[in-house]
Design goal:
This protein is an alpha/beta fold. The chain has seven helices and nine strands.
């Protein structure tokens, strides 16, 4: 299975977001990563369900809605109805992550994802992996674009890859943060099969999206 690369729309030009989505789709995006921040779990405040609904007609590619919010259950239905294909929550944000994951899964054809902050160990997934379709390893601290990749997270990627494989789960392992042509091969070698691209990769060097996707894939 080829490695999936999804641009993070937090880095896109918001003055022409629909056009950006179309251009990224045509350039080779496998899906779109939508960062939702509530100003509480992370410092910034970004992207509501209405915006997701507004850009949904511009592509048929899947939307991974990354809920960096406290009390995620309040936001699940609005983002599903807006067009989210996968909703990714943080176990650090809720006392009942299994309940939240099952709530997401209760919506037909909607995938449930989990994202782990850099300081949260892989062992936090032990009781949760069987309830999720995808795990996202944060390789930067969530909340800001443009941060450098945290090298110690490679070990966490390896640990989670082993957990998924030992259990024989059909679970995507995604990496979010600091992706670049210089580290993509090491990230994939550690076990990632999906990647989120931002300012150091998909949106780099004059934002020639087709060339940037081609460069990233040439490094694999």
């Amino acid at each position: 299975m080829p490695v999936l690369i999804s641009p993070s729309l937090i880095v896109a030009d918001f003055s022409r977001l629909g056009e950006e989505v179309q251009a990224l789709d045509a350039a080779g995006a496998d899906g779109f990563h939508i960062d939702v921040m509530d100003g509480q779990f992370v410092p910034n405040l970004t992207l509501g369900a209405q915006l997701v609904e507004d850009i949904r007609p511009y592509t048929e590619k899947p939307f991974d809605v990354h809920l960096m919010v406290i009390e995620p259950d309040r936001h699940i239905e609005p983002f599903v109805l807006a067009g989210g294909n996968r909703l990714t929550i943080h176990p650090e944000c809720t006392n009942h992550p299994v309940r939240s994951l099952n709530y997401i899964r209760s919506f037909e054809e909607t995938e449930a994802g989990l994202a782990l902050n850099p300081g949260t160990p892989a062992s936090a997934l032990d009781a949760l992996l069987d309830f999720t379709h995808a795990v996202t390893v944060m390789t930067v601290s969530p909340g800001y674009a443009g941060q450098p990749f945290l090298e110690p997270m490679l070990r966490k990627i390896e640990q989670i890859r082993a957990m998924i494989d030992v259990r024989g789960l059909d679970c995507i392992l995604q990496v979010d943060g600091g992706l670049s042509p210089d580290n993509i091969a090491r990230i994939v070698a550690a076990g990632a099969d999906a990647l989120v691209g931002g300012g150091s990769s998909v949106f780099a060097k004059g934002r020639d999206y087709a060339a940037n996707f081609a460069l990233l894939r040439s490094k694999l």
